[in-house]
Design a protein that fits this description.
Layout: H1 2-24, E1 29-33, E2 39-42, H2 44-50, E3 67-70, H3 83-90, E4 94-103, E5 110-120, E6 126-135, H4 137-182
Antiparallel strand pairs: 1-2, 1-6, 3-4, 4-5, 5-6
Length: 183
């Protein structure tokens, strides 16, 4: 019986280590918060995104974040729209929130597609808020470039139409002048 219990504990420890390794090396960012907004843990993708040091120690806690969340229009996100706050207020998961994140050092805005999930304890109380996100900064930059190119194309079409109009007016004016000169 003791041997079976030891094997079960060893098996559980191996599965826990495998799960930690999977989350640590996941391409999406994962940050686990306590309800008081202190961080329990963050994986490598989240540390790279926020510019935190990459510690090999899985128990190392990153610094308390000093960031500002922005809406897609660039305005500051009100507190009731912040995914973490929405999970605290409702106890329900929040999915697919696009947020710009500016860190306290005044760095450029990084964009992320965010999700937040409550993790409850055995009696139903909120234990952690799991914040997951995917970096979409390059996508947002590509969209901005596309909008700029569309504006240039629109301006080009306007100039082409103006040129065609001016050519037509000049042609008609030339026809009128030819008739006057002919008489």
């Amino acid at each position: 019986l003791r041997q079976e219990a030891d094997q079960a504990r060893q098996s559980m420890a191996e599965r826990a280590a495998d799960s930690r390794a999977l989350i640590t090396h996941l391409g999406a960012g994962v940050v686990v918060f306590r309800p008081d907004q202190s961080i329990v843990t963050a994986n490598h993708a989240a540390r790279r995104f926020f510019g935190w040091p990459l510690d090999d120690d899985p128990g190392a806690v990153p610094p308390t974040p000093d960031w500002q969340l922005l809406r897609e229009d660039g305005a500051r996100m009100p507190r009731h729209e912040v995914p973490f706050e929405r999970v605290l207020a409702t106890g329900q998961p929040v999915s697919d929130v696009v947020a710009g994140i500016r860190t306290g050092d005044g760095a450029a805005v990084r964009w992320a597609l965010c999700n937040a999930y409550p993790e409850n304890d055995t009696i139903g109380g909120l234990r952690h808020v799991v914040f997951t996100f995917v970096d979409i900064t390059s996508l947002k930059q590509a969209q901005q470039q596309q909008r700029a190119l569309e504006q240039q194309l629109s301006q080009s079409h306007k100039m082409e139409a103006l040129g065609t109009l001016a050519g037509g007016v000049a042609h008609d004016f030339n026809n009128i002048l030819a008739a006057i000169l002919g008489n």
